[in-house]
Write a structure and sequence with these properties.
mainly beta; globular; five-stranded antiparallel beta sheet; eight-stranded mixed beta sheet
Length: about 190
């Protein structure tokens, strides 16, 4: 019977080996304005995301769970971004993939322009290191699943997610349900 437990542990460990599970990938927390969801860190001083729905006129249902995060860009060129440490770190020359859900809200307290989501990885906390994804303008008001595939050029310990616009704009992007980061040939 002891050997059965050992085999179970080995199978369980090998099934999660090669994947990075982010803390709070669905941004579950108490809905509030100007607050960083549990497990994430603010990456731009004095500009915080919102935990939605329920604030700024945004009432869209989450794609998963009870809440999601909203990031904005402003007409003065400032923007919001969040990040966290990745465990284990991502290795260069290895292909990785993950998915996330994106939407846009036509009502967000005047921040109503569709904007981009950018995702960076880096060796340093909150750095705009290597750009691994740019969504282009997200115009869908219902959740759409996006797949991100990338091969890091350098070892990376952090992920950064930011709102982005090609020109200063009052815009928003909604993010929910980030999957584990897995090696491409493993599902």
């Amino acid at each position: 019977m002891k050997w059965f437990g050992s085999i179970f542990f080995v199978l369980l460990f090998s099934s999660v080996q090669g994947q990075c599970i982010l803390e709070n990938p669905s941004f579950e927390d108490t809905p509030s304005d100007a607050m960083v969801p549990h497990g994430w860190m603010m990456c731009n001083p004095a500009t915080t995301p919102d935990i939605l729905p329920g604030f700024w006129g945004v009432n869209q249902r989450p794609s998963e769970g009870r809440t999601y995060v909203g990031l904005i860009t402003r007409g003065n060129g400032t923007f919001e971004s969040i990040g966290q440490r990745i465990h284990p770190e991502l290795l260069p020359s290895e292909c990785y993939r993950f998915t996330l859900d994106l939407a846009y809200s036509p009502l967000y307290a005047g921040y109503n322009t569709p904007i981009h989501l950018r995702v960076y990885i880096s060796e340093t906390k909150c750095k705009e290191g290597e750009l691994i994804f740019d969504s282009g303008p997200v115009k869908n008001t219902s959740w759409k699943r996006k797949e991100i595939k990338f091969t890091p050029k350098l070892k990376s310990k952090y992920i950064r997610i930011e709102a982005y616009s090609t020109k200063p704009a009052q815009g928003n992007i909604l993010i929910d349900r980030i999957s584990p980061i897995t090696i491409c040939n493993r599902v």
